[in-house]
Design brief:
The structure holds two protein chains of two kinds. Chain A is of the alpha+beta class. Chain A contains nine helices and seven strands. A five-stranded mixed beta sheet of chain A has the order 1-3-4-2-7, covered by helices on one side. In chain A, a hairpin with a 2-residue loop joins strand 5 and strand 6. Chain B has two domains: 124 residues, Leucine-rich Repeat Variant; 55 residues, no CATH class. Classes of the chains: A alpha+beta, B mainly alpha. The interface between A and B is large, with 56 and 57 residues.
């Protein structure tokens, strides 16, 4: 978990109030066809505006820093955090600086926490790239460039394999890429593991058992009508999964809910094995009594033969197999010579 | 909600086309700004690059750089910053004299515009364009930026100087800057 920061690092100095921190007025004059789900200001997001540093304003000053950091940690690993006492804040509120390990985590946190209520207050979350070091900025640009390049290459490959006219473009792209990115290729390879994309959400444990291994879901990024990806997720096929990062975006929720519903539906058809086992246990307890009575009767059969124990259908092939196996075993054991029914033999008490 | 990409593709293209059409047809500056910002944001997603290229949106963004409206310039530059990471869009920008159009705005008074311009120039750096992008005037400009108050501008300029320029180029620029300062430091005769 993150540790509070000491003030030795140069980037943690007194903050300036920057224009990009301010919440701009929401645009109200959009025609319907390009209105988004949420009213937004007219703003363009570039890689320069985004950062793994976030500032959270409007946190009620009631000692909820831990809760805030825990909330942030839902979206990804938090490397550092501290209150920004020097930053102008509304009365009875505090401002916090949160440093995420990955930009995608910061993006998700901003999307999900901005304008949300938190312990009675309304949070305003914004990126604060001014807290980056030169190296942070460089890595951020490299990650972004690598991601776009990879996307372009995979599209070119897809187009090429379809045998469309864009195959020339594909080869052009590849040639240009080779020309420009000797350095980028090396960086690309090293960045692949640190690639700033969103890890797939792990399935909850109870789903894994009946339905086998986790399947990383191919959820594609969906912008809203205004083009902002800040309501969308970009999925990653990376094997790393951060257990803490639970994504709660609406699209993701829909999809997860959809999956869960279908999974739940099939789960209800599949009865838990424990209840079947209980049924079987009861039958087994009854069966020895019956077989005992039957075996006792075979030696000197008087009267009509007792009916065979009813064959149970347990609605499951494996349990039926097991049940018939046990039944057969019991029959074999019962018909074996020298078998004596298990009787409780009470020793006659000796009278003293 | 997960959508089938092949079913969604024509819808996406048509939507982007509608945006471009509105931009071209409308007289309202406000509507143009909104649409421009939308397109610039769509340019952030690599999935849209192909459609935007087809709709000639890179050219549209470049056209915005010669507009008087500062929002047009800022949003257009932002769009170029987003697009220029894609190799196909990068080439279109270069073919249309993008470097000089963008360089003109390094002195823009809006910080976002300048930041987008610096990043775009870095994206446009290829072995073929390197010499043009690292000409002395630009390197000196970046050197000044690396001493600016704004941390974002300082960082970006530093990355430019370290990654796009050779040490010799930076040294030359430093010398020239000192020369200029010395000239300014000479007191006027009384």
């Amino acid at each position: 978990m993150a540790v509070p920061v000491n003030n030795s690092s140069g980037c943690w100095k007194v903050p300036d109030v920057h224009k990009h921190h301010e919440q701009q007025k929401v645009c109200i004059s959009r025609p319907k066809y390009r209105e988004g789900r949420r009213a937004k200001a007219v703003k363009v997001y570039t890689i320069n505006l985004e950062s793994r540093f976030l500032m959270v304003l409007g946190v009620p000053a009631i000692g909820v820093m831990t809760e805030l950091v825990q909330l942030c940690a839902l979206y990804g690993v938090v490397e550092e955090y501290r209150p920004l006492d020097e930053y102008p804040a509304e009365e009875f509120t505090e401002v916090y600086l949160i440093k995420f390990q990955k930009l995608t985590s910061a993006r998700a946190a901003k999307r999900n926490m901005d304008e949300k209520s938190f312990y009675g207050g309304v949070l305003h979350v914004c990126y604060v790239p001014e807290y980056e070091t030169v190296e942070d900025t460089r890595l951020k640009l490299q990650d972004r460039r690598g991601y776009v390049m990879r996307a372009a290459r995979s599209r070119a490959k897809a187009a090429h394999s379809e045998g469309s006219a864009s195959s020339t473009t594909a080869s052009d792209i590849n040639v240009r890429h080779d020309q420009t990115s000797k350095k980028e290729c090396a960086e690309d390879a090293s960045n692949h593991s640190q690639h700033a994309e969103f890890p797939p959400l792990p399935l909850p444990p109870w789903e894994q058992h009946p339905f086998g291994h986790n399947s990383p879901h191919g959820i594609s990024a969906q912008e809203d009508k205004m083009g902002t990806l800040h309501d969308a997720i970009i999925n990653l096929k990376q094997p790393q999964v951060e257990k803490l990062s639970v994504n709660q975006a609406s699209e993701r929720d829909h999809d997860t809910e959809h999956r869960l519903t279908s999974d739940q539906a099939s789960a209800f058809r599949f009865l838990p094995r424990s209840s079947h086992l209980e049924i079987r246990k009861r039958r087994m307890e009854e069966a020895p009594e019956q077989s005992a009575s039957v075996s006792g009767g075979t030696e000197t059969l008087i009267g009509p033969k007792l009916p065979e124990p009813p064959k149970l259908d347990m609605n499951d092939d494996s349990l039926n197999t097991t049940a018939s196996l046990i039944r057969n075993t019991m029959k074999q054991v019962g018909s074996a010579p020298g078998f004596k029914a298990v009787e409780k033999k009470t020793k006659p008490r000796r009278r003293i | 909600m997960k959508r089938n990409e092949s079913a969604e593709a024509p819808e996406r293209f048509e939507y982007l086309q509608t945006l471009v059409t509105e931009f071209q047809d409308t007289d309202s500056e406000e509507a143009k700004e909104q649409v421009l910002a939308n397109l610039a944001n769509f340019a952030y997603d690599p999935k849209n690059m192909e459609y935007l290229r087809e709709l000639q949106v890179p050219d549209l963004f470049l056209d915005m750089l010669t507009e008087e409206n500062e929002n047009f310039v800022e949003f257009g530059m932002g769009g170029l910053c987003n697009l220029s990471m894609d190799p196909g869009c990068r080439d279109i920008i270069l073919e249309n004299d993008g470097i000089s159009l963008i360089t003109n705005h390094l002195s823009n008074r809006r910080e976002e515009t300048v930041l987008s311009a610096v990043t775009t120039l870095m994206n446009l750096t290829t072995p073929a364009t390197c010499s043009q992008i690292t000409e002395p005037g630009i390197v000196q400009c970046m050197l000044r930026f690396s001493l600016a108050e704004s941390p974002r501008l300082r960082n970006l300029a530093s990355v430019f100087l370290q990654d796009c320029c050779s040490q010799e180029q930076v040294r030359q620029a430093e010398l020239q800057m000192q020369g200029v300062q010395t000239a300014i430091g000479i007191p006027l005769p009384e």
